[in-house]
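Researcher: I've been going back and forth with a colleague about how CBS-domain-containing membrane protein might be arranged in three dimensions. Neither of us has a model we trust, so I'd like an independent prediction. The organism is Microvirga lotononidis, in case that matters for your notes. Sequence below.
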Amino acid sequence: MTARHHRLTEPLTPHRLLSLALGQSSMPDDGGRIALMPWRLRREAFGRSTPRGPHGQGRRPQHPLSGAVSSPLTVADVMTRDVVSVSTATPVSEIANVLAGKRISAVPVIGADGRLLGIVSEGDLIRRAEIGTERRRPWWRKVLTDVEAEAADYVRTHGRKAQHVMRPQVVTATEAMTLADAADIMEKRRLKRMPVVRGSHLVGIVSRSDLVKAVARHQAAVFADPPTDDAILRDLMDRVKAVTPSHPLINISVHRGNVDIAGVVDSAAEREAILVAAENTPGIRSIQDRLVLRPRSVS
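Model: Here is an independent structure prediction for CBS-domain-containing membrane protein. You can compare it with whatever you and your colleague have in mind.
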């Protein structure tokens, strides 16, 4: 269920700030009074842990939410297994037809034994003599340019087979690699796809579109029993501590899955991060936003 939230405005008086610092609940009781939160919840809200005894005694026990926590997705969960590939002898014109016809941006080059030898991408085919896009250098640069590099460039622009245009240095992934690691590599290397290998043999390919499809297929975890208010509070407080250093000034209360968040933050982005953390906390039904921006001194 998607959490609903709305913003409530309230004057930020000195009394109000003191109430937040003391951990007072911002939800009035039936008599209109502001009730103090139990000390245990206030201590958790301020991030104070119970002193540990020998072997971790006295440590606050963890209470996982109902339902099993899913393990991180791996490349094997999303990769394309039926990979279009070519051999070293495949003509360049045929590779171009495959890329255009199947609307893919690259094809792996494999040997007769299934080993990955290289990859040919769209970028490897944009400088070609057939379409007049090969690099043209003035005669004086040809004299100063390394002869070996000049010869290799000629092979790439005029070669007729995959072995002439492929890149042998390929960034690869493994089936056990997490999607987080795969996304880091593709982002840092500016890659659109990575061949997936088992040893040196090609077993699949993972692309940015595969990660987008994983987002589209994602569904929130289904819980056998709704989380308790205490479990929701602990979970949300952990999330808030992870996104903002202002968590000691944030007061959170939970009642039947309805969350009230009050406190002071330094920026609108920080406030938005706290609300997003609440929206991603399982079990929350609605969110009351009482967060205010810290006044900035004017010199």
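Researcher: What would you highlight for our discussion?
Model: I'd start with this: The domain at 81-217 is CATH 3.10.580.10 (CBS-domain). After that, consider the following. The chain is about 35% helix and 20% strand.
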